TrEMBL record:
Source species, domain of life: Bacteria
Keywords, alphabetical: Signal
Organism of provenance: Persicobacter psychrovividus
Name used for this protein in its record: Por secretion system C-terminal sorting domain-containing protein
InterPro entries: Secre_tail (IPR026444)
Signal sequence annotation: 1-19
């Protein structure tokens, strides 16, 4: 009986430690995003998810480093933002997402 009680106490303490770690991580704020193309590569969607609201700036650069488009989204934790590439030349593009937590870059190949 004493052994079962000790195991239960240890489990409860470890659960509290893990819960505290998750709260600390959430307080820091985290985000992620993906770039998804439609079937004919005319539309790319940036899907953004975060655990806190933040001002988010999305910039897309061509392979020469020239900014193609830039936009800001405010006051939401997650969103989907479409970008039309119907008239854009083929090439490698870089999406840069700046929010209150980090700056993240992802590249994609546009093949019209």
């Amino acid at each position: 009986m004493k052994k079962i009680f000790s195991v239960m106490i240890a489990m409860m303490m470890s659960a509290a430690v893990f819960a505290g770690a998750n709260d600390n991580e959430a307080a820091k704020g985290k985000s992620m995003f993906r770039v998804i193309a439609n079937n004919n590569a005319e539309l790319y969607k940036v899907i953004y998810i975060a655990n806190k609201t933040s001002k988010v700036k999305i910039s897309i650069y061509d392979e020469d480093g020239a900014m193609v488009v830039s936009t800001v989204v405010k006051g939401v934790e997650d969103f989907m933002k479409p970008f039309r590439f119907k008239r854009m030349p083929a090439g490698t593009y870089t999406v840069v997402v700046r929010d209150g937590f980090s700056v993240t870059r992802k590249t994609f190949e546009h093949k019209p």
